[in-house]
Amino acid sequence: MKRAVITLLSLIMVAVIGAACGVMYVSGKVTSELTLENETLFTIESGSNAYRTVKFLRAAEITDVPPFVAKVWLKFFAGSTSVKSGTYMLRPGQSLVDVFTLFTQGDEHFFAVSLVEGLTLSQWIETLKQNPNLVFDLDDDKLRQLTQGNGVDWCCEQVSQTEGVYLADTYFFTKGTTASELLKRAHHALIEFVSLEWEKREADLPLTTPYEALILASIIEKETAVPEERDMISGVFVNRLNKNMRLQTDPTVIYGIGPTFDGNITRKHLRTATPYNTYVIKGLPPTPIAMAGKAAIHAALHPLSTDALYFVAKGDGSHQFSTTLAEHNAAVRKYQLKR
To answer: Alpha-carbon dihedral of residues 82, 88, 94, 100, nearest 10 degrees?
Structure first.
């Protein structure tokens, strides 16, 4: 009897030790580093389960955890095994346990796209079309729908109001996001920002609606790439509007010419009447001419107090500002005619 008890206890001890060794082996495998040298994107398709995900990781040579070890771990030790579809960024130093935390929490990788200020909607559309991580779904009808029902009465009720009604910024998204979803976010971001800035605008501006501020911001955006000049450029345009002077800004003329513009603005262009030719019309053009960022919108509503009425490009990206036509003509001779 005593011998039987000793034998039984020995067998139990062997089993416990064996189980402990097994647990340590499984634990060691699933907590060891993945076989990665660089950051790697990994996509879990809809309908995948935990074990199938491990199989895909093995097939991609991201992990060398044996199938049996993976099954034991997933069944007894892994906790949550409900993986969520999506694209994840896997990094050197992570383990199978680490990446399954990402998979089960749905902590997808965010991609970024920069929708650059000063570009037109058609240029943005090309940027979105070329992004491999977005689903491109834009057409004319979709673009019109994106800006309808935005909760404000100053923007986008007209079919023509699609240019310049999105906020230039960098946007983050998960793989499979549609281009229309991204633009809708950019539109709502613009409505929110312009509405807030409009409430804080300087007094006595020659702007009657936030939409007019957006038009002015788009012109400021096209006129200078020097951040420090934006409020000064705004000040000049505000002065000209207050004096009922034509804005006489080349970017509006170029926008009015459209896709046929070859890069060379001529006297004929400046004399041809279009709704955007500010050498011919007084006041602002009917719509923005480009996408504006926050800084240009802020400048449009907070112009620098100045007596300047003119500016000319120096050729290095900056401008020479003048208060009189004589000073301006001298600056044109110095910086433009000489070149």
So the answer is: 0
Domain boundary among 105, 133, 150: 105
- Structural domains counted in the chain: 2
Six token digits for residue 3: 């011998």
Please report whether residue 282 resides in a domain.
Answer: yes
Is residue 25 pLDDT above 80, yes or no?
Answer: no
Query: Would you state the pLDDT for residue 338?
Result: 62
130 plus 86 within the same structural domain: no
- CA angle 57-58-59, nearest 5°? 90
Q: SS3 helix, strand, coil % of the chain, rounded to 5? A: 50, 10, 40
Note the pLDDT tens digit of each residue in 163-176. 999 999 999 999 99
The three-class DSSP label of residue 173 is: strand
- The per-residue pLDDT for range 33-43, each reduced to its tens digit, is 888 889 999 99
